[in-house]
Write a structure and sequence with these properties.
The complex is a heterodimer of chains A (340) and B (260). Chain A has 340 residues and is mostly helical. Chain A has 15 helices and no strands. The radius of gyration of chain A is 20 Å and the shape is globular. Chain A starts with a helix and ends with a helix. Chain B is an alpha/beta fold. Chain B folds into two domains: 174 residues, Rossmann fold; 71 residues, no CATH class. In chain B, the strands form three sheets. A six-stranded mixed beta sheet of chain B has the order 6-7-8-3-9-10, sandwiched between helices. Chain B has a four-stranded antiparallel beta sheet with strand order 2-1-4-5, covered by helices on one side. Classes of the chains: A mainly alpha (340), B alpha/beta (260).
Chain lengths: 340, 260
């Protein structure tokens, strides 16, 4: 794929920004570590073993998680906005995150309710990610089925909201019956955190995100056709149903796996594709895909830096930061660009 | 023997609702050849769009088949069909940042590779479509800044870039003023004359269609008739198109006279 020189320049700048934010994310935090020391720790030639430990065991996995989450959520938002022909679609708004929450709630809190043989099965590390993906898949399919009955694309947002409320209600019922311990576990999960992942979890998350992104790449051409609507897409040779299924699976894998590991994270999937469209001034999905990947990574690294107010030991949940930054951006976009 | 671009025999169009077939029109024998400009006329709600959608494989015929270049259209792969038939619909475009150029470039999708990369031939086809439709000057404008006439032309240019022998348009002249209607019809006529396209379009501008088209397909609730303007006027099909005493057709001047 060839990009125009303006786009190539922007890609270069964004790539640089991701690199700088990555280093900043490793360096800043409750303990400020000089950049040279970060470099030494990464190279394995560090003199300071506590810095070494902070960087390698805590901040590096967290920064990598931030990049994976930022890329995955942003791309899933891009896919959904085009699929639903709705500029305000995103994994959080359409209730996918709630669906994932329900899946996770069943695994975490349902263990108390089901027979013990089944409970053992629910404790396996893969069960959370599977339940989460299935949860988001279920909500996505439900929204899509309802969406086909609706002519008004804005009504889809309300449908997403309703499915979100419905899943939340089921979660509330589950939590009412679950043990205090399981409830606490679920509550911590639902606050969202980038920092709790070990390398093995990162490997699984990374594979899921890579799979989701790979599937998305194969839909880029069809996504461009979908900008004209479903019927036009068919008349220029795009097999619509097939494309739809790939998009659904890709989105469910991305949103589901990410939510399973870091909790429901709001607004990234909605705001980042818009920033990309605003910055690159194009509808070409080949360009937007790369732009969303880079911007998503950059934005989430930035949010992660802000969670640990530099120099203090105050730590804010990532979900709060993304909402504080994301919600005003979305409102601003709506006001500034009447036509999204 | 000339294989017709589009041919139907005993076609029945309509739709299935709750396992009940609703027949819109049946026993359709239609054919359109290379270089022909054909208008589909009929009252609102008589089923023009349903017929066009069936011809374009956007919905299934209830009976019979649509042949495109001598082959059953249902047997084409989507991408192959897209190289035979391009379509301009009435539906509004979803909001997007597409520029005129990008919009027209989408017409090249049946020819591009899996990621949609445009090659030299694609770019040439796009630029010549821009040229034919006089859109070169506004090629970098966003889709949502266009007037109705410009958008209609851009969509037609997209169909031209698709480079198909057959083009089907659903009410391309709606929302256009007299000047732009005439320009558009002349453009379609020229495409038939000079590029050998076969163009089928639905319209409510019957007087213009009578003046400019090679043939008309007249759709009424009871029958569907295809023929040259002269024949249709002579046989009184046009005069009976509107079953309304206040609208009288004047065969001499090929105009409708209204009693107000």
């Amino acid at each position: 794929m060839s990009f125009s020189s303006k786009h190539t320049t922007l890609f270069g700048l964004l790539f640089l920004a991701v690199g700088l934010l990555f280093i900043a994310d490793l360096s800043l935090g409750a303990v400020a570590i000089p950049i040279q020391a970060v470099g030494q720790a990464l190279a394995g030639s560090s003199q300071n073993s506590s810095w070494d430990y902070i960087v390698l065991a805590y901040r590096l996995p967290k920064a990598i998680t931030a990049i994976l989450v930022g890329m995955g959520l942003s791309v899933s938002g891009l896919l959904m906005q085009t699929l639903f022909r709705n500029p305000l679609a995103g994994p959080y708004v359409l209730g996918l995150s709630s669906g994932s929450s329900l899946g996770v709630a069943v695994v975490v809190m349902g263990a108390a309710v089901v027979p013990s043989q089944l409970a053992g099965l629910l404790q396996s590390p893969y069960s959370i990610i599977l339940a989460s993906c299935l949860g988001s898949l279920a909500v996505l399919v439900a929204v899509l089925v309802v969406a086909q009955q609706l002519k008004d694309t804005m009504a889809i947002l309300v449908v997403g909201l309703m499915f979100g409320s419905f899943s939340s209600a089921l979660v509330a019922v589950l939590s009412y019956f679950s043990s205090a311990e399981a409830l606490q576990k679920f509550t911590f999960w639902s606050l969202g955190s980038l920092g709790n992942l070990g390398w093995d979890s990162i490997a699984i998350l990374g594979s899921c995100v890579a799979l989701g992104l790979l599937l998305s790449v194969f839909t880029l051409k069809a996504l461009n056709a979908l900008l004209l609507g479903e019927n036009y897409a068919k008349t220029i040779g795009i097999p619509f149903s097939q494309t739809k299924y790939i998009l659904i699976i890709a989105t469910a894998i991305l949103a589901g796996s990410i939510t399973a590991y870091v909790g429901p994270i709001a607004f990234i999937g909605l705001a980042v594709p818009h920033l990309a469209k605003l910055l690159f001034q194009t509808s070409q999905h080949q360009v937007l895909f790369v732009a969303t990947l880079l911007l998503g990574a950059a934005v989430l690294l930035l949010c992660d830096i802000l969670t640990q107010l530099p120099g203090t030991s105050i730590f804010l949940p990532i979900n709060a930061i993304t909402s504080i930054i994301g919600a005003p951006i979305v409102v601003w976009l709506l006001v500034k660009k009447q036509r999204l | 023997m000339d294989i017709p671009c589009i041919h139907t025999a005993n076609l029945v169009v309509g739709y299935t609702q709750k396992n009940q077939q609703k027949i819109i029109a049946s026993g359709l024998h239609l054919r359109a050849k290379k270089g022909q400009l054909i208008a589909l006329v009929g009252q609102n709600g008589v089923g023009k769009s349903t017929l066009l959608r069936t011809l374009c494989q956007l919905q299934k015929p209830l009976q019979g088949e649509v042949q495109i270049q001598g082959k059953n259209a249902a047997q084409y792969k989507l991408a192959e069909l897209a190289q035979q038939l391009s379509v301009v619909l009435t539906e509004k475009l979803p909001p997007s940042n597409l520029t005129v150029w990008e919009l027209i470039a989408l017409g090249r999708q049946p020819y591009t590779n899996w990621i949609g990369q445009l090659c030299e031939a694609d770019i040439q086809a796009i630029n010549s479509a821009l040229d034919l439709t006089d859109l070169t000057e506004i090629q970098h404008q966003k889709q949502y800044t266009l007037s109705d006439g410009q958008l209609q032309k851009a969509l037609i240019a997209r169909a031209l870039a698709q480079n198909t022998p057959l083009i089907v348009l659903d009410e391309p002249t709606t929302h256009l003023d007299l000047v732009h209607k005439l320009k558009l019809l002349k453009l379609l006529k020229n495409l038939c004359l000079h590029q050998g396209k076969c163009i089928l379009f639905s319209t409510h501008d019957i007087e213009m269609a009578l003046a400019i088209c090679d043939e008309l397909i007249v759709m009424t609730p009871n029958q569907v008739v295809q023929g040259s303007p002269e024949k249709l006027i002579e046989s009184g099909v046009i005069a009976n198109l509107f079953a309304d005493a206040d609208i009288q057709f004047d065969p001499e001047n090929k105009k409708f006279n209204l009693t107000i």
